[in-house]
Design brief:
This protein is mainly alpha-helical. It has a domain at about 165-260. It is built from ten helices and five strands. It has helices spanning about 30-40, 50-65, 80-95, 105-130, 145-150, 150-165, 175-190, 195-205, 220-235, 240-255, and strands at about 10-15, 15, 75, 135, 140-145. The strands form two sheets. The protein has a three-stranded mixed beta sheet, with helices on both faces. β1 and β2 (about 15) form a beta hairpin. α7 packs across α9. The longest helix is centred in the middle third of the chain and has 25 residues, at about 105-130.
Length: about 260
């Protein structure tokens, strides 16, 4: 479900420009961060390959088009996550009525102290593991390790190989990003609590045939849902399980936001 550019090369989504297709843009990550900000995303693309920043903005724009009221996650390099985590943490504190008793200064101090601790943990995890990108649920931020922020071609190759081996449902960077976005969607809509989805996941695991989705989908129900949404949003002809999970997410969204 990729948004196309118009005759002037400007990408259009619901509400206006969605992304920048110029990978040699002299403004670099800053211009693409402005695009992300228009979509409601707190992003730091300063260390991202331009094509990766574009892929994120495309995925965010497509999600916003499908599910306009869904809160999109932040995105940052895993080894430089402090600033985005702090901004995201402060935003969440300001939205939570339980913290209204705190002064703005106290909220800021708390958000930045927690972000510093979390950023250090994420950096160490990125250095010691081999994840392509990771959704940090407590912050709703997607963190990308350094080896994947600046070498887009290798990230594409690894993702394509993982799909050939049946490890993931989609062999593209776009699918990888949509997978991580789905973790935030699940947290907001509660898809993993739907009885029919839980039953389908149990049957999927019991049948032990990851070719119907992926090996990753078998690890837990959250990964199952994210693999399904990643395929639903990234493939022209998603497989039956992915179609079901995609439709379930859209139906649940429409139930929670009937005015849409």
């Amino acid at each position: 479900m990729i948004i196309k550019t118009d005759s002037e090369g400007k990408c259009q989504a619901q509400g206006g420009p969605a992304t920048c297709e110029d990978t040699d843009c002299p403004e670099g990550g800053a211009a693409k961060q402005e695009v992300a900000a228009k979509l409601g995303v707190i992003a730091d693309y300063s260390k991202f390959h331009p094509k990766l920043a574009i892929a994120f903005n495309d995925a965010f724009a497509n999600t916003k088009q499908m599910l306009p009221d869904i809160k999109l996650p932040g995105v940052t390099s895993a080894d430089d996550a402090y600033s985005v985590l702090a901004q995201k943490g402060l935003y969440d504190l300001n939205q939570d009525p339980d913290y209204d008793v705190m002064s703005p200064e106290t909220k800021k101090e708390l958000a930045y102290r927690l972000a510093e601790h979390a950023a250090e943990k994420i950096k160490k995890a990125a250095e010691s593991s081999n994840f392509e990108m990771e959704h940090i649920g407590s912050y709703d931020v997607i963190c990308v390790p350094k080896q994947n922020t600046d070498d887009y071609q290798k990230l594409e190759e690894r993702t394509a190989q993982a799909r050939k081996e049946g490890k993931v449902s989609v062999g593209s960077v776009q699918g990888l990003i949509n997978h991580e976005i789905a973790h935030g969607i699940n947290n907001q809509l509660g898809i993993s609590n739907i009885p029919e989805v839980r039953t389908l996941y149990k049957a999927f695991v019991a049948y032990s045939n990851p070719s119907h989705l992926s090996m990753r989908a078998m690890s837990d129900i959250d990964e199952f849902i994210s693999e399904g949404w990643g395929e639903y949003m990234s493939e022209a002809t998603p497989r039956p399980i992915a179609q079901y999970l995609g439709k379930t997410i859209i139906d649940k969204y429409n139930e929670m936001y009937p005015e849409r």
